[in-house]
Amino acid sequence: MPLVTTKEMFEKALKGGYAIGAFNVDTMDILKATLRAAEKTQSPVIIAISSGALKFIGEDYIRQICDCAAKEFTIPFALHLDHGKSVDLCKRCIDIGFTSVMIDASAYDFEENIRQTKEVVEYAHARGVVVESELGAIAGIEEDVVVDDKYGQFTHPDQAEEFVKRTGIDSLAIAIGTAHGAYKFKPGQKPQLRFDILKEITERLPGFPLVLHGASSVPASALERLNAYGGKMPAAIGIPEAMLTEASQKGIAKINVGTDLRVAFVGGMRKALHEQPEQFDSRLFLNAGLDCITDLVADKMVNVFHSAGHAKD
Predict the structure, then answer these.
(1) How confident is the model over 46-68, as pLDDT tens digits?
(2) Which of these, 60, 170, 176, 209, is most buried using a 10 Å CB contact count?
(3) Which domains can be identified in the chain, with CATH numbers?
(4) Is 299 a catalytic residue?
């Protein structure tokens, strides 16, 4: 199936009360492992590429890899730039063949965020590409996304409404208590999403796709596997999966996951390396990690986002 934009995906998700998973992939193999999960569960999916992953994979490769995958897999998927930190990067990714881009000018003041977002929207829409932007600050660290305030700055509903109307964006990432990276909260600190803020935003923007960033759950089983076979990753508290399911039923159309894939991948490789020290075929160890990613992504599609079975809606 040819690559698609997220526009129709989100319309169906909002009507159906489920969310589309946007999974940050770092390599071609992880991309394929994610698509295998989507195919297995018959779920629509978004392949999210950060600027770091784009550099690692190569700008000249990414669209061609996706075009090859589109010949193999039958489920609809979009190619999305995650946290595009400049207008130029967003335009370059549009020209490369991304079907969705995120312009993240949230570090600037409100008016400059609007200015940059509008410029990307005008360029993207003229080429059939959709645009996501962000209001508020998501706590934590992911790649070059750094926020000093541990709890972030929640998105103001009145600004959200004005921002969407003035920019013409297609989806909006909001800050309601999620956090980037693995170490989102201090030990003993209870994660909590501000569903009251989400409710007010959806009332002001009925039917408009909203996005949650920093939504990895850091499953205990994946963390335990990683540490059982030589890892030294400290305990991490993620966003409870029940909260993510609730968010998907209350107006969140897209949920971003990155850290969970990395923890699953490294844990799977460590286990295989430990259990088969006589082996030296790199494919064996890579596949062990990739299988863990496929299992994790499939579980989220079935049990958390409830997007399974909606590929052909």
Answers:
(1) 999 999 999 999 999 999 999 99
(2) 209
(3) 7-219+239-259+293-304 (3.20.20.70)
(4) no
